[in-house]
Design brief:
heterodimer, A: mainly beta, seven-stranded mixed β-sheet, four-stranded antiparallel β-sheet, globular, B: mainly beta, six-stranded mixed β-sheet
Chain lengths: ~110, ~110
């Protein structure tokens, strides 16, 4: 059973398009996260979401918006995609903010 | 400003040897220090973690050493195996009020050669 699953695994699209990445966790966790891993493998937090409280990393452009329909899901919507958005995006979850985080296998986004 | 500095960037170790990866942090409010292991095409997976109230934590072949005064912590992999070949990330975070967000080091690519 996959604990944190992301879809799609690969996403290839053109500049200017709007796209979404879905994330679901079956661990019963209360907190979910989105991370961006760039071409140099640097991992950076984008958002954390706990009990309807959204914490946004100040460096994230407002073209990115997380949406949580329920506790088990945190989707990432990206508007007006740019070349610099090409990266691997990871979803993660944890029981609470100070508990270990479990990561999905990532979504590789490529912008043409 | 990089709050967690990790070295080396890459490391080659012979099978059976000891792999050592070092990290240094700047923010004294950090109070949780995990290490993650990432294989190609996979997400990072928690390997071992430590809090600053202890100086060392061991789990199997993996040991974290923590030096609070120097603001440094390191991962030691004893008896390194080819299956340990992966990218390792140190991280740090602070609990308490506000967000609990991991700040990662830039990663170390470990290659264990037979």
């Amino acid at each position: 059973d996959t604990a944190v699953s992301q879809t799609p695994k690969y996403l290839v699209t053109q500049m200017g398009n709007d796209k979404s990445i879905k994330c679901e966790q079956n661990l019963g966790h209360d907190t979910m996260y989105w991370y961006k891993q760039d071409s140099k493998k640097f991992l950076k937090i984008m958002f954390s979401y706990n009990n309807k409280e959204l914490i946004i990393n100040e460096t994230v452009p407002n073209r990115f918006s997380p949406k949580s329909p329920d506790k088990a899901h945190l989707n990432l919507h990206i508007n007006s995609l740019e070349l610099g958005d090409s990266a691997v995006y990871f979803c993660a979850s944890s029981y609470d903010r100070d508990q270990p985080q479990h990561f999905g296998d990532g979504t590789r986004l490529s912008i043409l | 400003q990089q709050q967690v500095k990790q070295s080396p960037q890459s490391l080659i170790v012979q099978k059976g040897g000891i792999s050592i990866i070092n990290c240094a942090y700047e923010n004294t409010a950090f109070d949780y220090f995990p290490w993650y292991q990432q294989f190609p095409g996979k997400g990072p997976a928690l390997l071992i973690a430590i809090r600053p109230d202890v100086s060392e934590k061991k789990e199997g072949r993996f040991t974290i050493s923590f030096n609070k005064s120097a603001k440094q912590f390191s991962l030691h992999i004893m008896d390194s195996q080819p299956g340990d070949s992966a990218t390792y990330f140190c991280a740090a975070s602070m609990s308490g009020a506000g967000s609990y967000q991991l700040t990662f080091g830039k990663g170390t690519k470990l290659s264990v050669i037979p």
